Amino acid sequence: MKRSLTALLALGAIAAVALVVAPLSATPLPARSTAPTVDVSLDDDEDAPACHRTEFDTEMVKKACAEGGQFAAKRAMKHFVRAAKKTLSVGNVDCKTCHTGLAPEYALKDDGLTRFNDWKKQLEAAEK
Ligand code: HEC
Asked: Is the pTM of this model over 0.90?
């Protein structure tokens, strides 16, 4: 009697495990099919390092860094320099006109910020 009760309990346990495992083993399929998309977005995050600066003197870079890290800041800067070259008579300038070095620190020359503000003001005036 005692033995058959044990057997029954064991059967019950197996049944319970099967009930729990069945729905669990059914879920990985849809989960797996969505996994690549999740991975891709995680990769993007890894590829977009935060800006080196944590304090900003310009709204442009501050905003770009907040929205898309250093990649966005670089994009904004390139756009800014292109606009300056096209619109202002600044000559053949490039990143090193204001930066002593580029990634990852983008350290500025002494007059880097002054120059930036100057170009920015001129560009805004030209847009009007
Ligand atoms: C007219 C001067 C000037 C030029 C030219 C310039 N920059 Fe900058 N850049 C600045 C200033 C000023 C800052 C700091 C902005 C702030 O503190 O808000 C800065 C900041 C940056 C940052 C943020 C870095 C960080 O992680 O903190 C990046 C990236 C950057 N510049 C890239 C470039 C690239 C790429 C070029 C060339 C296409 C370039 N800059 C040309 C003035 C300039």
From this structure: no
